[in-house]
Amino acid sequence: MKDTRFSPDRIEIPAGDTLVITLTNADDMVHNLVLATGVVSGSVAPGTSKDVTIGVVGTDIDGWCSIAGHKLLGMTLTVVAVGADPAGDAAMPAGHASAGGESSAADDLDLMKKPAADFTARDAVLPPVSVQTGSTPNGSTPTVHTLTMRVKNVTTEVSPGVTQSLWTFNGTAPGPTLHGRVGDVFDITFVNDGSIEHSIDFHAGALAPDKAMRSIAPGQSLSYRFTATSSGIWLYHCSTMPMSVHIANGMFGAVVIDPAGLTPVDREYVLVQSELYLGAQGGEADADKVAAQFPDLVVFNGIANQYGARPLTAKVGERVRVWVLDAGPNVGSSFHVVGGQFDTVFKEGDYLLRDGGSTGTGGSQVLDLAAAQGGFVELTFPEAGSYPFVSHVMSDAEKGARGVFQVTP
Question: Which H or E element spans position 181?
């Protein structure tokens, strides 16, 4: 037992033989072994060994370390009974079976596994307003942002070795981040190139939903025009029912509308938190898991732990603004930077903290968000080093809602 792994993690023996496993803990933390048959090793301290009698093996057996979080990190073991009667497998636990009875991609999760060398994380830098501006203001003429948003079904690796068939806006989940100012007009052409009905709902605009937010069939399109009258970071998403499943399967994104008087910063990032409810490998979201509100992964910008493998960057003394949006569909967020303190907090359209607050010396440790809420925080890093960022709903951080700011001199 080392590096939260069993080695080997697969043991093959002839069916009918008796198995004894010698556990040697070469790690620096306590581990144990629990088998689906009910055999429990008890704790094995670092640097010690223990023999565990499994008994006569007649069918395959799953095992894991039951220390909190170790199974989730990939500390699992399989005993394979070679030559066993296949009918015996029916009595074994179904594990992470999906709603359709298929094996779930959750069985292949290994949140300690590193991505491939050629993996590229999603660019978290907030795009400048000019990127999506279709015309330039002239006198009283508003700035118009013109964009086509297409539904595309895209198979995406959401964690190393785990793929899902996502419904996306323009090929990514989250979809493209739109950026503008109060008074800007967004002229959107929504095209359904997917395989089922979809729709789009922009929280950044106020208008009757009857036409602009209606569901359209594959091959159809509609025009959606709204004016950004209020500042903040706003969710957009598919509102076709079951809405929870459409959001969980990738149909969401952010619109950032700068508040008046927003001061320039050295770096500006956008992190959209969402959840994944894994179906079969390469399949779509498990609707039963969505309804139960028990996600397999909680992620920033669509992929588990991607900014741990490919950190966001900053320099000592630079002012960094981080926009955070919780797309849900079910779980809240508590955004925190380990080793950092926020001197500015903006949430749902107003400042909660600025210039030290009423005391003049105030600071903040988290930006707390319910599903569909958003805001931003600002901080400077006092010295070089690696500063993890997480949702401080810690079980969600351990499901993938974490990353790192790599700060250089």
Answer: strand 178-181
- pTM, whole model, 2 decimals? 0.80
Q: Over 70: is that where the pLDDT of 271 sits?
A: yes
Please tell me whether residue 284 adopts helix, strand or coil conformation: coil
Beta-strand pair 333-337/385-391: antiparallel
Residue with tokens 């700011």: 405
Looking at residue 44, what DSSP letter applies? B
The C-alpha atoms of residue 44 and residue 29 are separated, in whole angstroms, by 9
Residues 62-72 have a mean pLDDT of 79
Q: Return contacts of 42-47, CB within 8 angstroms, 24+ apart.
A: 44/1
- Start-end of H helices in 153-202: none
Q: How far apart are CA 386 and CA 370, in angstroms?
A: 28
Residues 233, 321: Cα–Cα separation, whole Å = 13
How far does Cα 59 stand from its chain's mean position? 36
pLDDT in tens, 227-262: 999 999 999 999 999 999 999 999 999 999 999 999
Of all residues in the chain, the percent with pLDDT exceeding 90 is 84
Going by their DSSP bridges, the two strands 34-35 and 18-24 should be labelled as: unpaired
The helix (run of H) or strand (run of E) holding residue 179 is strand 178-181
Q: Which residues pair with 164 in a beta bridge?
A: 156
